[in-house]
């Protein structure tokens, strides 16, 4: 059994899976742990990703949990560390990207840290420090109406500077495109200027590989999963990792029924729900009804039981921004979200226990976290991708399960169908 090389801390569950998928494609056998595994020994893997739920909690809580995860990864033998946040850089007004990165950098005594949420495969690109989603600025995308972390500023230098006392600089695209040596030189120049962070432009995978190559000696890297794309090659070049990348994502077969659960209200997930409903059975949960008790949860379980022996079903709470806003005005943002997460988690567990479900596709980071917790999943072995950033995984807990945990904004319109067709 080999020691892990790369230790990662992710601020939500689907982000952790996205990162793990990137590392698997680079040839690193990857395992995702659910929460800080205090009493668990390190798994046999090249990369370990600890998935937290710290994106929207109080900064002091996010810092405490993230530092605890770092210390566990250090004790496990990891040599380099990665702090993963969303490719849309979303956070609350108080953080938590800046506060957590500050704490990790202090623990690792790193003076300059990059911040690069770019994910070109998912149309997240950075130019002159501004984050684009597809062809529009972040502030003009659907993220401006996100119910928990609305993003109304596309200037990442400005956004990060508001969250940290460290000075934030920029490495522009014309430098990145020149290659790893140019990136390294720019990093040294920013250190001389006493910068604590460097937002790094990237518009394509080649840019991300250039950035990754330049970070071989950096103990801490922060960004979206794309920023980790070049890290496995550094270990291969150093003779620490096998160059054979074809088997890193191999998973065993899982037999059983299939279920899709969706709590995300993102534009992408809403389109995926509508696509599914054209030809497949779907049951919509209403948050206001859930506020009155568990009657609708029981109805959903009975409804699903009629279909599951013969075909997969979708149970969803996804809704348009207008409906989400109306619901939040009546129940409050936090209560509305927790009611839906609890309902989908409870339904998922019941259908696994009593209806033979063994393959689950879950849409939404918060929903995924609630579902894996309800299913008592302790770790995930990461497989090959379904769509960029979303792999199948094998979860070990109350029973072995195949799980595809999808960030709300990820995946093609036919993602649910595509995922089930590729299930292990």
Mean pLDDT: 91
Named CATH architecture of the largest domain? 3-Layer(aba) Sandwich
| β-sheet strand percentage | 15-25%
Taken together, the total number of domains comes to: 2
Protein name: 3-oxo-tetronate kinase
Pfam family, one: SBD_N
Function: Catalyzes the ATP-dependent phosphorylation of 3-oxo-tetronate to 3-oxo-tetronate 4-phosphate.
Organism: Caballeronia udeis
General description of the model:
It comes from Caballeronia udeis. Pfam families: NBD_C, SBD_N. Keywords: ATP-binding, Carbohydrate metabolism, Kinase, Nucleotide-binding, Transferase. GO terms for molecular function: ATP binding; kinase activity. Its EC number is 2.7.1.217. With 424 residues, this protein is of the alpha/beta class. The protein has two domains: 6-237, Putative sugar-binding, N-terminal domain (Rossmann fold, 3-Layer(aba) Sandwich); 257-421, Molybdenum Cofactor Biosythetic Enzyme, Chain A, CATH 3.40.980.20. Helix content is 38%, strand content 21%. It has 15 helices and 18 strands. The chain has helices spanning 13-25, 59-76, 97-108, 156-161, 173-176, 180-192, 205-214, 231-237, 267-277, 287-290, 295-307, 321-331, 333-355, 365-374, 415-421, and strands at 6-10, 30-34, 47-51, 80-84, 113-116, 124-127, 130-133, 136-137, 168-171, 197-200, 220-223, 257-262, 282-284, 313-316, 357-363, 379-387, 390-396, 401-406. The strands form two sheets. It has a 15-stranded mixed sheet with strand order 9-10-5-11-4-1-3-2-16-17-18-15-12-14-13, sandwiched between helices. A hairpin with a 2-residue loop joins strand 6 (124-127) and strand 7. Helix 2 runs parallel beside helix 3. The model has no long low-confidence stretch (mean pLDDT 91).
């Amino acid at each position: 059994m080999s020691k892990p090389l790369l230790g990662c801390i992710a601020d939500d569950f689907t982000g952790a899976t996205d990162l793990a998928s990137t590392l698997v494609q680079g040839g690193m056998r990857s395992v995702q742990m659910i929460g800080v595994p205090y009493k668990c020994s390190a798994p046999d893997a090249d990369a370990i990703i600890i998935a937290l739920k710290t994106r929207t909690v109080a900064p002091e809580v996010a810092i405490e949990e993230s530092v605890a995860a770092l210390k566990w990864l250090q004790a496990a033998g990891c040599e380099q560390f990665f702090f993963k946040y969303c490719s849309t850089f979303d956070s609350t007004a108080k953080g938590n990207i800046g506060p957590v990165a500050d704490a990790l950098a202090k623990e690792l005594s790193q003076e300059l840290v990059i911040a690069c949420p770019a994910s070109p495969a998912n149309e997240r690109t950075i130019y002159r420090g501004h984050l684009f989603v597809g062809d529009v600025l972040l502030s003009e995308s659907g993220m401006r109406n996100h119910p928990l972390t609305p993003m109304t500023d596309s200037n990442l230098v400005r956004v990060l500077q508001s969250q940290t006392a460290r000075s934030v600089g920029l490495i522009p695209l014309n430098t990145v495109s020149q290659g790893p040596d140019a990136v390294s030189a720019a990093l040294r120049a920013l250190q001389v200027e006493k910068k604590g962070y460097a937002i790094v432009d990237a518009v394509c995978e080649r840019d991300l590989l250039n950035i990754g190559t330049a970070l071989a000696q950096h103990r801490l890297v922060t960004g979206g999963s794309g920023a980790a794309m070049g890290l496995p090659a550094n270990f291969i070049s150093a003779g620490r990792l096998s160059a054979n990348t074809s088997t890193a994502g191999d998973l065993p077969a899982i037999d059983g029924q299939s279920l899709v659960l969706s709590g995300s209200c993102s534009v992408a997930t809403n389109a995926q729900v509508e696509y599914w409903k054209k030809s497949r059975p779907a049951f919509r949960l209403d948050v206001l009804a859930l506020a009155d008790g568990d009657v609708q949860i029981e109805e959903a379980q009975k409804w699903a039981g009629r279909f599951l022996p013969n075909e997969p079903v979708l149970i969803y709470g996804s809704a348009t921004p207008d409906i989400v806003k109306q619901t939040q005005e009546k129940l409050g943002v936090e209560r509305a979200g927790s009611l839906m997460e609890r309902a989908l988690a409870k339904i998922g567990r019941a259908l696994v226990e009593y209806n033979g479900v063994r393959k689950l596709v879950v849409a939404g980071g918060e929903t995924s976290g609630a579902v894996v917790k309800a299913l008592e999943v302790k770790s995930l072995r990461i497989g090959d991708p379904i769509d960029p950033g979303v792999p199948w995984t094998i979860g070990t807990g109350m029973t072995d399960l195949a799980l595809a945990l999808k960030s709300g904004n990820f995946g093609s319109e036919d993602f649910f169908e595509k995922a089930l067709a590729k299930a292990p």
